[in-house]
Structure formats: structure tokens, C-alpha cells
Amino acid sequence: MSNEAPVIGVLALQGDVREHLVALAAADAVARPVRRPEELAEVDGLVVPGGESTTISKLAVLFGVMEPLRARVRAGMPVYGTCAGLIMLADKILDPRSGQETIGGIDMIVRRNAFGRQNESFEAAVHVKGVAGDPVEGVFIRAPWVESVGAEAEVLAEHEGHIVAVRQGNALATSFHPELTGDHRVHALFVDMVRANRAPESL
């Protein structure tokens, strides 16, 4: 069982879903879009992509997937959020929109659009702990940053003094979009997390 490729979903409510599916497949996972609770139940892990965090929150509630997703994250399902996905995995948002909810899972406080507006998007080389070799090329698009983390959360990367990658247990989050660069090492890190989480079941 442990040698089989893990099945990893991409929350397909908004954002660059296709790029994440491609990156996960390149990292030797079986990747599929997830919109509904029954699809969520069939995956070993989940990626929450970028987009607009308020919209993702509202659509997750509308599609009936928010509560099942929270339950699975609490139960230890590996989850990886990029950009807006990072906001969705935060236990607290510094400046939430009215009615905005999060999945939670990482003890961190995040600031939305912290790096500026759409026209201030940029790329930067980021050293990510756990990713071997050269720095990761991070694409920052209306990106959030992490204001602070709790004792259980591990900072994996910073950019200009701001936290841009965090891990807590089976939850991983980055402010930037690695799926847009053709460098699949961050996705490979997440696939390894999913494999490790499945391993006890195969004994």
C-alpha cells in the first residue's frame, strides 16, 4: 500500500487548480479536483490553492465542504495552502473581511495582501527549510505574510524579514505560488508528508 502513489486533491472552488494538479502529478501523486464532501473523503491529502480567500471561504460553505474539511484537518489529514490557501489554514486573520471563515490548522496570525496589490506582484528566491538544493523561486501575487506563529508552528522561510512559509504537523503553507514556476520541489515535500502520514496504515 505504501508504495502506491498517494491520492491528493486540489480544492477546485477558485484559483490556479490546473497548475497544482500538474505539479502534484510531476511529484508522483495521483491528483484530482475536489469540490464536494464525497470527493474530499477519497483523498489522502489536499492542496488549497490561491485565489481570493473570502470567495474560497464562501464557496466552501456553499458547497458543503467547509465543515468536513475542518474535521479532516483536525484529524490529521495533510493539507497544503498557497497564498489565499495560507490564509485559509490560519487560525486567525489580522484583518478579516466580514463573514470570512478559515479552515484553520496552523497556529498563526496572517495579514491579507501584505505584500501589496496585484500590480506589485513579484518573484523572489526563497530558501525553504526541507527543500534541498537551490532556493525556490517564489511568485508573490497579492500575497499575504505571517505576522506571528504559535509554539507548535515551524517557520520554514522568510522574505525581507517576513514569514512566508510555515509548517505545523501535517499542515504546510506558503505565501507564494510554487506551482507557477515549473519547480515542483515544494509539492514533492508535501507529497512526502502525505506518504509519511499513510505509512502506518500499511504496516
Written description of the protein model:
By secondary structure, the chain is an alpha/beta fold. Helix content is 26%, strand content 30%. The chain is built from 6 helices and 12 strands. The strands form 3 sheets. It has a 7-stranded mixed beta sheet with strand order 2-1-3-4-12-11-10. The protein has a 3-stranded mixed beta sheet with strand order 5-6-9. The longest helix has 14 residues.
Q: Outline, from the CA principal axes?
A: globular
> In terms of structural class, how would the helical and strand content be classed?
alpha/beta
Beta-strand fraction estimate: 25-35%
Main sheet properties: 7 strands, mixed
Helix run count: 6
User: How big is the Rg?
Assistant: 15 Å
Ends: how far apart? 9 Å
Q: Spatial order of the strands in the main sheet?
A: 2-1-3-4-12-11-10
Detail the poorly predicted runs: none
How much helicity do the residues have? 25-40%
Oligomer: single chain
**Mean pLDDT, as a whole number?**
93
Number of extended strands: 12
Top keywords for this entry?
6 helices; globular; three-stranded mixed β-sheet; seven-stranded mixed β-sheet; 203 residues; alpha/beta; single chain
